């Protein structure tokens, strides 16, 4: 699959920014009513009626209303946002934790639905669909060569539990068409990517967002790690833009002792709502490390702040995003919604970690870019925090407010063998697209290999490294990987492992040389 030169930098940028922008907007409490009575509201309603009934030309007044709402919210704060009906359903589903469908991971590849990997034990896997298959028809509906929008495609593949769909599949490896009947079922949307032991006593849990099922996923992973002998725990919320704060609070409760303060909120009336840990914690002893970076926001910061302020564990990484506002969701009759900031939250020591937004939304979201320029992604001494924002934990440790969680152990961006552009590129969707193309050309090159045989094969060749360098040049990025060879090969190998063997194997490879994991082991007692 070729990515148009002009779109490749955008793909990378969107991949990096989406987690913070979307996740940060989702730190809300569900509510369904939004009532307001004032003269300005009546004025707006009358104006829309005047335009509808009297304006000389036909005008789509719905678009005017949406524009008005956007403009109003833009005057408030960066996280008070309007979500149109077309986007709201998708966002709600992503935060729900599951959906009903056929259970496949796929790319739109040359205008066809190409299967990356069927969900393990899901409906498609049970029906016999394999990685690399193309779905040509869903029942009688043609899916290839039509440039179908995602919402139309998803609607065709989703349905009710137990409903049946006939898929016509082209299997490239066998050069034949196959018809398969698939029974739709509930497909989980995991917010915990992996829980695994890194050594005999250190467990690792990666959380990608805080959705409805995050706490239950975390609890299952934590109990499994304890049963395997874990005495230390690493919680990775790097690039986690947030979500439901209640899920982060529930996870913190597992780690903190009874009656320790987790977080408190304060609204415009000055009302304070405090949330304390309960007796139910299942990991109240043992080392805890939380990994954060500049894209860790919102609920991720609530969790990190609770651990840091209670002297419960060690925060490792780089200063987090700095989102300390709480939203409430209000639904409109047309399926749209508005998320309105209704409070600020504070960590247990009383600090707000919300960064300033007085210069407007664009400057607010580009603040992370300035961290490159001022050097703070490479040197902790470059982090500028006002002395007036110093707070002390009960054990006397100095912590800071006013713009994110400052880590206890600073780990610079992993650029010792290359540029920051390379480091971010390797964690973007571009690597996944490249690997899929390589597998699609010659999947048989890995057929029958055990995981260890696969590792040996990848370590012994520069074929994919050289091909990836060529691929990047062809798609308009002037990035030379000569000084980053080991880093690039590691991420390529990890992505091959993910698509061939599963998510756990991706992390097995990436984490072995991960700078933050190394910092944890160096400081583990």
UniProtKB/TrEMBL annotation:
GO cellular component, one term: outer membrane-bounded periplasmic space
Domain PDZ residue range list: 98-173
Transmembrane intervals: 7-28
CDD domains: cpPDZ_CPP-like, Peptidase_S41_CPP
Top-level taxon in the UniProt lineage: Bacteria
The keyword Lipid metabolism is annotated on this UniProt entry: no
Official protein name in the record: Carboxyl-terminal processing protease
